[in-house]
Design a protein that fits this description.
Rossmann fold; about 25% strand; alpha+beta; 23 strands; 11-stranded mixed β-sheet; Translation Initiation Factor IF3; BirA Bifunctional Protein, domain 2; single chain; about 35% helix; 5-stranded mixed β-sheet
């Protein structure tokens, strides 16, 4: 990599797709492989995922969930037990038909999701009301044979998390469905600095086999939607199809109620497309693998005072659980500054012998590129860095929310909807609830329903498509 490559990133406003590809490559998040449609997640990209996993896994365990691991292969007969479910996934299923040199007696798919595997297992282990609830989660990969792929956003092999739970009552299962949705919301708002709209999917867009699907819809810089997580209330459909029964407190055989919920590395794509800029990646401090990059100017190891200051700064940052690196490579200072910006380190510290003689250092925040001069005092530097990391986190969220809100529209008739459809962003309409109107909006304007938000349902107008009374205020928009 040379300085030109570090700087040579297509402008977001010129070609957003090319900009995205430039950033994921130049920030060293991914590489391409000979496995078509799949990506190599490089160590820096994987470290972001590890931080997300660590945060989310603790949230799951704090709410009583346990991790396990299911097989990656599903026999065709097992997949076919729940007909609606398999119909929804059939176009994306990858099949294994041969083992070694011998054809398989029954072909097996590589899991596109694991509902049926969990159901098979639950049938064996749930016999009494005392066995419930079952709150399970797994971290794994799935395979969906996507025709068009893009790093993190859409891949044939997806790194993700999927939770699957069983409950004795509908009320308990519904509560679980919404609780997990709000855990995802907390992750994305408080850690990823992503403002999300939450609500229910339309019946047309819900998960195959679900009674209801709830979603988190993030808006990217270009106004396009990214579905950043879903939580499904499955009711008793799967448990009845698989014959999962248990003795309740009245000693009657009944079917349990089920949920499933999941997120994936797609969230990393959301972080890039929401916070990144023409200089590269911008990472929220709470999930940044490296929060501070210390860049010595000159050969700091040959200057005892400079060497001592840098090591003391890093030592104090470590005590405060702030991750940092010292870039002591032989690259030019300009290259190091540009590389730190491309990789999205929230803060960089620039310090050289000349600065030290004047008893000062320079701190640069990645979100605003503001340069701050501080005294070369380790305690004061540490306090300021601690404050700045929080301020950067908050500022990234506020900036993203403000931009998102500026691209939220309402339309009361077809002409208004047609006009807002030409703009980047989401449009809310009072939808009549008929699939015909949902299809017309998609086919004529290229907008898909995003969600029926939990709030904003008080005032309903007529549907812009058919002029019938609206049943749900619903967001529509383009999607990745």
């Amino acid at each position: 990599m040379n300085e030109k490559q570090v700087k040579d990133i297509t402008s977001r406003d010129v070609d957003f797709a090319k900009w995205y590809t430039d950033v994921v490559k130049k920030a060293d998040l991914v590489d391409y492989s000979s496995v078509k449609g799949s990506m190599i997640i490089r160590p820096y990209g994987y470290a972001i995922w590890e931080n997300i996993v660590s945060i989310l896994d603790k949230m799951f365990k704090d709410t009583g969930h346990e991790n396990l691991q299911m097989p990656m292969f599903i026999p065709e007969s097992l997949l076919n037990v729940e007909k609606e479910h398999v119909k929804g996934f059939a176009p994306e299923v990858a099949w294994v038909t041969q083992g070694g040199s011998s054809p398989l007696e029954e072909r097996m798919c590589i899991r596109p999701t694991s509902e049926v595997l969990f159901c098979e297992h639950y049938k064996k282990i749930i016999k009494s009301h005392r066995d419930l609830p079952k709150l399970y989660n797994q971290w794994c990969t799935i395979v969906r044979w996507e025709k068009v792929t893009r790093p993190f956003l859409r891949s044939r092999e997806i790194l993700w998390q999927e939770g699957h739970t069983m409950h004795a009552s509908e009320a308990e299962a519904r509560e679980e469905t919404l609780n997990m949705l709000h855990i995802y919301e907390k992750l994305q708002k408080d850690y990823l600095a992503l403002p999300v709209l939450i609500g229910k999917k339309t019946d047309k867009e819900k998960f195959a086999g679900a009674v209801e699907t709830y979603t988190l819809e993030a808006m990217m810089y270009d106004g396009v939607a990214l579905q950043n997580g879903t939580s499904h209330y499955l009711g008793q459909g799967f448990s009845k199809a698989f014959g999962i029964e248990y003795l309740d407190k009245e000693q009657k055989l009944v079917n349990p109620y089920q949920t499933s919920w999941g997120v994936s590395t797609r969230m990393i794509g959301g972080i890039i497309m929401t916070h990144g800029d023409d200089r590269g990646l911008v990472l929220p401090p709470k999930i940044a693998p490296i929060q501070v990059c210390i860049i010595p100017i000159g050969k700091f190891e040959e200057n005892d005072s400079l060497d001592t200051l840098i090591k003391n700064i890093r030592q104090e940052l470590t005590k405060e659980n702030i991750t940092s690196i010292i870039d002591n490579s032989d690259k030019s200072p300009g290259f190091k500054f540009a590389e730190a910006e491309v990789r999205g380190y929230p803060i960089r510290i620039e310090v050289g012998a000349r600065d030290l003689n004047e008893n000062k250092i320079t701190v640069v925040r990645r979100d605003t590129l503001e340069k701050i001069t501080l005294p070369a005092n380790v305690d004061e530097i540490t306090r300021k860095i601690t404050y700045l990391l929080k301020d950067i986190q908050d500022n990234l969220y506020k900036t993203a929310e403000s931009r998102r809100n500026s691209m939220l529209y309402t339309a009361s008739d077809w002409d208004e909807l047609t006009m807002t459809a030409q703009k980047p962003g989401f449009t809310m309409i009072s939808w009549c609830g008929d699939e015909e109107c949902e299809d017309k909006i998609k086919n004529d304007l290229g907008l898909k329903s995003r969600c029926i938000p939990f709030d904003l349902q008080e005032e309903l107008n007529n549907c812009p498509c058919c002029n019938k009374s609206g049943k749900f205020n619903t967001y529509f928009g383009k999607q990745y």
